[in-house]
Amino acid sequence: MLSKTMQDAFSEQIRNEFSSAYLYLSMALYFERQSLPGFAKWMRVQFAEEQAHALKMLDYVVDRGETVTLSAIEKPFADFKSATDVFERTLAHERKVTSLIHNLYALAAKENDYASTEMLQWFIKEQVEEEKNASLILDQLKMVGDKGSSLVMLDHRIGKRGE
Ligand code: FEO
After folding, report:
1. What is the CATH architecture of 4-158?
2. Whole-angstrom Cα distance, residue 27 to residue 66?
């Protein structure tokens, strides 16, 4: 079993993960409109990863004999200005998610919920990867700029994600 506090906190984080998925789908659609299929594909992989994060957490709650309250997710931001703008938002978003995961971990520790702290270690490590990936692409975008043949080449390479 899980305490009511932990059940509510996990339900909220599951909502956040689905909300992240929706944001990345919005970013994928932006890149489709910009004729940057590689970046669009990267964002579609990210969309799938966020859904997997949500389901991983949901399965854990179910394994503990509890249920999840699903709640509404907000309309995702869509007014992106450039590829660099998208990845600045991606990095900021992942940093925010990292702090949410850390808060959840701190709550589990306060509740002496050792199984939850152990499970959340996976998410803590995953956030290191998430921030690293977004930061690397942002740095590369700053090097190549938001238009021209270098951006097309970077798009081609970014599109290899998941192959
Ligand atoms: Fe589920 Fe991108 O963190």
Report:
1. Up-down Bundle (1.20)
2. 34
